[in-house]
Amino acid sequence: MDKHFFFIAFIFLPLTVLSRSRVVCDTVRSEILNADRHFSVYLPPSYDNECADKKYPVLYLLHGMSQTDMDWVYRGHVQEVADRLAYSGEADEMVIVMPDAGGDIYAGVWNGYFDMPGWSYEKYFFDEFLPYIERKYNIIGDKNHRAVAGLSMGGGGATGYGLWHSDMFSSVYAMSALMDIPEKGAAKFDRPDDKLAILTKTVMERSCICFVKEADDIILGKLRTVKWFIDCGDDDFLLDRNIEFFQAMRDAGVECQFRVRDGGHDWEYWHSALYMCLPFVSRNFK
Amino acid sequence: MDKHFFFIAFIFLPLTVLSRSRVVCDTVRSEILNADRHFSVYLPPSYDNECADKKYPVLYLLHGMSQTDMDWVYRGHVQEVADRLAYSGEADEMVIVMPDAGGDIYAGVWNGYFDMPGWSYEKYFFDEFLPYIERKYNIIGDKNHRAVAGLSMGGGGATGYGLWHSDMFSSVYAMSALMDIPEKGAAKFDRPDDKLAILTKTVMERSCICFVKEADDIILGKLRTVKWFIDCGDDDFLLDRNIEFFQAMRDAGVECQFRVRDGGHDWEYWHSALYMCLPFVSRNFK
Amino acid sequence: MDKHFFFIAFIFLPLTVLSRSRVVCDTVRSEILNADRHFSVYLPPSYDNECADKKYPVLYLLHGMSQTDMDWVYRGHVQEVADRLAYSGEADEMVIVMPDAGGDIYAGVWNGYFDMPGWSYEKYFFDEFLPYIERKYNIIGDKNHRAVAGLSMGGGGATGYGLWHSDMFSSVYAMSALMDIPEKGAAKFDRPDDKLAILTKTVMERSCICFVKEADDIILGKLRTVKWFIDCGDDDFLLDRNIEFFQAMRDAGVECQFRVRDGGHDWEYWHSALYMCLPFVSRNFK
Amino acid sequence: MDKHFFFIAFIFLPLTVLSRSRVVCDTVRSEILNADRHFSVYLPPSYDNECADKKYPVLYLLHGMSQTDMDWVYRGHVQEVADRLAYSGEADEMVIVMPDAGGDIYAGVWNGYFDMPGWSYEKYFFDEFLPYIERKYNIIGDKNHRAVAGLSMGGGGATGYGLWHSDMFSSVYAMSALMDIPEKGAAKFDRPDDKLAILTKTVMERSCICFVKEADDIILGKLRTVKWFIDCGDDDFLLDRNIEFFQAMRDAGVECQFRVRDGGHDWEYWHSALYMCLPFVSRNFK
Predict the structure, then answer these.
(1) Chain C contact present for A276, CB below 8 A
(2) ipTM of this model?
């Protein structure tokens, strides 16, 4: 073998070192949704090397409207970010589960993380999907080692899951979250079968902001068992609702990190948010 | 028009605001290379709105080995980064020109920014490509408003262009640069027609490090008219050569910024480097 | 001279290189305030080296309640930050003027940047102080090369000066600004000679938020000639008023950067803000 | 109580919330050094609130030449940084111990963390000081919950302590470290009683770089049980020695983070380094 070959090999060695992680694309049959549902799973570098009984913390990472789980993989570059942060020690090795709760809504595909007429996604998520995932993969599977995050519609989903299932997650990281429908966006529902109209109506009914404002002491006590992080760009059209959510949490005495960074409602923001999200959820695994 | 529609429009409004920029894909005939050469050009948001005689500063942005100009567009997300930084004011609106000096070298395609037997790319770049670009697009076209940057092989290209054409550029930003061949990579040249062997030999002969170490006072005086920025990850296999280049510049009294950030030889590094590169070259346009 | 000495000298050489800047402490007689007023001036590294007619852009940097100009020097470390950013090129060399509009308010000393009964500070600032400073020091002295920034009471002062004297400043950077009195802080004015009560009343009457909300198109047109940056910590008790100011600006179509970083109402926040403030005002000098 | 008072109280409330931590200044009698030795201890916010048996991880934080422990307090602002990072969750609550191994060396005061003729500081540190501290304060006191960091001479001290006492520390963070004497600083020792000459000679004999280069597999195995972080500015006169140390570690297969940030050998660098250091050592407590 000549040295020339060695040079080539040497060039790609660092990539190889970091690339033992993998993203698995898989499907699960849902009786609740009466459909096969796609999902992607990031398995960290040591996943295949460790003996079978090593178990990992898990992050559920939710996409936005008209996106699917593949957007986190191809545009969010979740694998590259997670590999880097695990390598430098800034985040723990973890399993990252990306469910598919969307697709092109204008083409008539269901979108949304909450239960709505015709689409019981929340029930599916907690009764079918999550148990299936945590059986199939090497996941610790308790509140202390489970987090949820997401962007836009998925940021609202992550926040809602944290609010209504506070016994399930140790932390929530919401990016550019659809906490409610922005003031000017109140839709007229002239076509009751329109999936976007149904989604809009559901998001309004399940307003994260109202939930916190109306929460009693028992609920607030539960919310304080979760660590919260709200992250939204100064040019994001959803900013005001994120502000309101943060203020509601703060005024209710629920500790909540809040950041407004430079940016809009776009992938540059969400990709960079991963660099804060993965360390945050790692710090709160215990 | 119902409010529903308004909600949808509202969602995508911010994206629209930021997306008036465009990336043009074009081709130029080179007599020197006896070939049609592809290139991409980022035109900033105001480019098409301004009256025809508004002219912009220009950044030449060079890709790495076995890549093409399209990698900066599709994986470097250069348009999104440039839009964001121009919008927030952290970088100037500029034209970003991405030439193609590569492709799959293992499939027998030429790679490289310097002149080598059979591939006079440097001559092409300065005699044909750059003049053609600066005539065709609204570019100011003087040293004070022209910069060059690149990654890996293109980082070495950018550095070399800055060293040997210091009258042409106001600043150079080198990412993970191939400043020379790493120690262990000295190739044996048993196949003199092997394009990778020719590239390797040329990079060694045109070592950026040796050039600085051997530079006389007249050359050093010229190098001091350029602003330099060297940026390389702590896990990059090219780090040591970047250190040597920086040390040579510093010891020769040529002011040179140097950063070692967390990272390897990969797109996460180069993408994040754009957020430092575009403000840097902007600061040095005058 | 032995080598030993050389080692010692070598150790302090880098400090020397960066320390040619100086902070001048000076006093000016004010007829308006009928008092001698103290101030500090940062003169950049090249100030004393350049020929006498080199002129610099200027930043007016305002302190908070019960502080003085010396707090920016001793706790804000303004000299060290400005030296570093000028050395790396991230900010321009500029003159930084720190007026004294305070001292221990609980000890009966006047505080405040606006005109109030018994303390015509704004009149003093624009009629006496600023002209005096710009005559005495090598300052360009036009809107394009003049900026104002400040923290807390001085953040409100900087914002107010920008709003009411938009023809004077190219940019405003407000840190943890007292944009108005926070909701819960509405004071009862039982002692009309109480200087804190007078300050509180004046800040409420000169509310930056109300001014923007009530501004007509002519005023808004003027505000758009200034670049604005609002920076406030997520744990700051003044956050909500900063949010309201940003929202008022955005809704009025006045471009305004907004950041909420991790932090409270303290010097760690303000010191780190200088690293964003000086590059921001530099970008907007032209 | 009028509302006015409330406003004032409200203003200082956030500071109060964050300021329950304290810095204790204390002295210990050393038989080894035959002297009373000063030290400072940062006790985190919950320290006094928790029941007496709550124990904390500990960071030993070492100052530079001609400095004392007070410099970390007054110029490093260690309390403010530690409070902030604990409050936001980016670092654990920990006890931070700042020993005094210095003072004005030009006034004839001993400086240095290693044993040298007349100054057995390393023996004192491990045999007297550390056991005393960990008995007196609520410190867990095992390798997994003990870290060491420092700047300049103290960065070399921290690195040396990590190298020679790898069973004692889980992580080491070295800022602008005196890993060895810089090339040009080799002193002539014409006055054998000169404390700076003795310090210089000792640092050369205890070169961190040589130790790693000469380490056998058993030692390297021990070094791999520690997490390492080397952080040095691009304008620091000690940079080259830090590069050599990192390269030695990397080439010996000891995982080591390395950063070169913008900056020199000054407090702006060391203060900002705390924001990386405290999260780093926290991640490596387990």
Answers:
(1) no
(2) 0.92
